[in-house]
Amino acid sequence: MDLEALLSDALRPIEPPESLAARVEDTLSAITEQAAAALGSWADELSDSELQSLRDPRNWVRPVAAIAVGGAAAGALALVGARRRRKPSGLRAGAERILGELSAELRR
Amino acid sequence: MSTADSSKPASVASKAELDREFEQLYRDHLRDVYSYSYYRVGNHHDAEDLTEQAFLQAYRHFERARRESDGRPMRPWLIRIAHNLASNHHRDKSRRPESNIEAVEPPAHPHTTERVVEGREELRLVMRKLDDLPEDRRDALIMRFALDMSNREIARALGRSDGATKVLIHRALKQLEEQMFSENGPGSD
């Protein structure tokens, strides 16, 4: 018995279903779009005093971090390709959690 | 196998470059992550969920992981994410992970009918015995045989040294062989 040959036979790579690629891309797309939207909302909600405080470089850490996240969101849109026309799948639970975390980061 | 790795330091890579690299990583290793997930959870539905979650996590941490990879292949990092998610999945469901791989149906083979019957029985047996191995041994064999990962890659994916991984795989094969032998009896080849 050639055990290694048997294992190679038994554990063949499994091709992912075509729908999975679209699903992953849809979810990444949703995250990046909502992260970008959250960044926009965050900027809109700043009060005058907050805007004033942003002129002080000591307060720049959070905005810079937020912009970095927003930039990441915009850049990742390249991933979505032509698959975005698909209706979102039911896998949004994980994405929603990540979105919540991203939004919380942006608002801190 | 192509990789998304670059010798360019992460500090000088633009966001667009990082996204292109992540996209390439995703395209290169979607099958690896899916295969690993499938053999860990034993069904397509959960494997799809795990694969999606793995790439979401990978995307979130890609820049840092790329920087810390120091030019090494990123596949072990991706598989490690899938490995951790699969472990969480089993823990959440409060069931033995070993109970799943047994349910995986062996793939079809282009042999004669008789050979197919014999072959599939043998495949079922090896899957069942694989199922009986300790989790770390079984995972190492999945990485080796389903993903064709090197000892070094498996070591990185499991967070072990190269030497410890070599021993792990050797012991896994030895244990599996003994279990197969005991099942087939001393008269079998």
Structure description:
- The complex is a heterodimer of chains A (108) and B (189).
- Chain A is an all-alpha fold.
- Chain A is 68% helix and 0% strand.
- Chain A contains five helices and no strands.
- In chain A, helix 2 (18-44) runs antiparallel to helix 4 (61-75), helix 2 (18-44) runs parallel beside helix 5 (92-107) and helix 4 runs antiparallel to helix 5.
- Mean pLDDT of chain A is 64; it is low at 80-92.
- Chain B is globular and about 60 Å long.
- Chain B has one domain.
- The two termini of chain B are 35 Å apart.
- The longest helix of chain B is centred in the first third of the chain and has 27 residues, at 15-41.
- Chain B is an all-alpha fold and 189 residues long.
- Classes of the chains: A mainly alpha (108), B mainly alpha (189).
List key phrases describing it.
heterodimer, A: 108 residues, mainly alpha, rod-shaped, B: 189 residues, disordered N terminus
Tell me the total number of β-strands of chain A: 0
Shape label of chain B: globular
Mean pLDDT of chain A: 64
Beta-strand portion of chain A reads under 5%
Strand elements of chain B, count: 0
The whole-angstrom Rg of chain A is: 21 Å
Order of helices and strands of chain B: HHHHHHHH
Distance between the termini of chain A: 61 Å
Q: What is the strand and helix layout of this fold?
A:
The complex is a heterodimer of chains A (108) and B (189).
Chain A: H1 3-10, H2 18-44, H3 48-54, H4 61-75, H5 92-107
Chain B: H1 15-41, H2 44-69, H3 75-93, H4 98-101, H5 113-132, H6 135-147, H7 151-158, H8 162-184
Helix pairs in contact in B: 1-2, 1-3, 1-6, 2-3, 3-7, 5-8, 6-8, 7-8
Question: Outline of this structure?
Answer:
Chain A has helices at 3-10, 18-44, 48-54, 61-75, 92-107. Chain A is mainly α and 108 residues long. Chain A has one domain (18-107).
